[in-house]
From TrEMBL:
Keyword terms of this UniProt record: Cytoplasm, Membrane, Transferase, Transmembrane, Transmembrane helix
Recorded superkingdom: Bacteria
Listed CDD domains: YvcK_like
Xref: SUPFAM superfamilies: CofD-like (SSF142338)
Subcellular location: Cytoplasm
Role this protein plays: Required for morphogenesis under gluconeogenic growth conditions.
Protein name as catalogued: Putative gluconeogenesis factor
A GO BP entry: regulation of cell shape
PANTHER family reported in the protein's UniProt record: GLUCONEOGENESIS FACTOR-RELATED, UNCHARACTERIZED PROTEIN YVCK-RELATED
Stretches that traverse the bilayer: 16-37, 57-81
GO cellular component: cytoplasm
Annotated source species: Megamonas hypermegale
Length: 431
């Protein structure tokens, strides 16, 4: 049965097998002409003799059956020979995966046919979604915020004058189709008291690659090859920006990492410099997308900063793609305290303009009382889904189970990807 997998639809293998068969047939016919049909006549006489021996008379049905068996045998031999040729090559190139060659090819072809999906955001929420999306389509692009100024990313940003690599690293790892050890290596964080303490290897790798290539896009491209990334990752801008916030009481806070610490209601966030050029490849990905997903992730410090880069919000508004916002399940202390789902959507519209989002995906799986009490100790509460208020903003609401609450409450990669594809396919059928 494993051999028959080579005949599955979508592998683009049958056409070449058929061409191979034509070549064999032509070769056989040519040999027959060269040798004046001598060997072909001998084979035909043998078939007639065997038929007569079995039946006592010439029987065309038995002759046809023998011919069919010969044809089937020839096809099996061609399949086997072709498979062994390909496996010989693959064994040299990727020896560890040669045993599941046909599955790899089939999966690659299936994912290649997936829709163009562009995901805009940052933080851990974005990487969670990407882990699921890479199993639905190979044509996924992440447009990532570069406003992070804390931790390892913040230190590298100041020391080497580069855009913060942390969120970019997480996206690369999330989209990677590589060995677990390579993923562990990229996520490894140095400990101790040395200058490397707190840095992740992946951040250092991307920073070094940027220094070597002289360009962050090229650095990400080369890093993607190392990790065998299923998709593309682009920063929203290559400019060094700082995220600031104006609070409702008029307080002005500088720095992405400082905004949640003041624990005041945010009125608006800004980037400085106010006008920075978007990465052309990111804009191209937005315009070419069939689906644009905003989030999940911190509303004001991961999702919205992308919309403040010149032309990003404009490109999203003008795109004909299905625009989906994945709303957070729990409120975030110091950022979205007491926020409902409609307040999340309203903040997106205020910063990105009307038309920035068409649909909001919210969780409808009940959260246990025990979990709610646990999160309440951290000042986090379930986001209330006020569907009527959402639709009054001109945005449609999709409710589904999109979380994993087995230990902690967080978005589930597979459920998120399934629902995004479900929304897309449902709308395609309706149109």
């Amino acid at each position: 049965m494993h051999l028959l997998k080579w005949l599955y639809p979508g592998l683009k293998f049958k056409r070449w097998l058929f061409l191979f068969a034509i070549g064999v047939l032509l070769t056989g016919m040519g040999l027959a002409v060269v040798f004046n049909y001598k060997y072909l006549d001998s084979f035909e006489e043998l078939v007639f003799y065997v038929t007569y021996t079995w039946t006592g008379t010439y029987n065309y049905t038995v002759t046809a059956l023998v011919g069919s068996i010969v044809i089937l045998l020839g096809v099996v031999i061609m399949l086997l020979a072709t498979r062994m040729i390909i496996r010989s090559l693959i064994t040299v190139l990727v020896p560890d995966k040669s045993s599941r060659l046909v599955d790899m090819i089939y999966e690659h072809r299936r994912l290649d046919k997936g829709p163009n999906i562009t995901v805009v955001g940052g933080g851990t929420g974005l990487s969670v979604l990407l882990r699921g999306m890479k199993e639905a389509t190979r044509n996924v692009t992440a447009v990532v915020t570069v406003a992070d100024d804390g931790g390892s990313s913040g230190r590298l940003r100041e020391e080497f004058n580069v855009i913060p690599p942390g969120d970019l690293r997480n996206c690369l790892v999330a989209l990677a189709d590589t060995e677990p050890m390579m993923e562990k290596l990229f996520q490894y964080r140095f400990s101790g008291n040395s200058d490397l303490a707190g840095h992740s290897f992946g951040n250092l790798f991307i920073t070094a690659m940027t220094e070597v290539t002289g360009d962050i896009e090229q650095a990400l491209k080369e890093s993607s090859r190392v990790l065998a990334v299923k998709g593309r990752v682009f920063p929203a801008t290559t400019s060094k920006v700082r995220l600031n916030a104006t609070m409702e009481d008029g307080t002005f806070v500088e720095g992405e990492s400082q905004i949640p610490l003041v624990h005041k209601r945010i009125k608006r966030v800004h980037i400085f410099p106010h006008h920075v050029e978007a990465v052309p490849s990111a804009l191209k990905a937005i315009y070419e997308a069939k689906v644009i997903v905003l989030g999940p992730g911190s509303l004001y410090t991961s999702v919205i900063p992308n919309l403040l880069v010149d032309d990003i919000a404009k490109a999203i508004r003008e795109s004909n793609a299905v625009k989906i916002y994945i709303c957070n399940v729990m409120t975030q202390p110091g950022e979205t305290d007491d926020y409902t789902a409609s307040m999340h959507v309203k903040a997106l519209i205020e910063h990105g303009g009307n038309g920035i989002v068409d649909y909001v995906l919210v969780n409808n799986k009940p959260i246990s009382q025990e979990m709610q009490e646990h999160y309440a100790q951290e000042g986090q509460y379930p986001v209330l889904v006020d569907e009527n208020a959402i639709e009054s903003l001109g945005v449609k609401c999709f409710k589904a189970d999109i979380i994993d609450d087995s230990q902690m409450i967080h978005h589930d990669s597979q459920k998120l990807a399934h629902q995004v594809m479900e929304i897309y396919h449902t709308l395609q059928q309706d149109n």
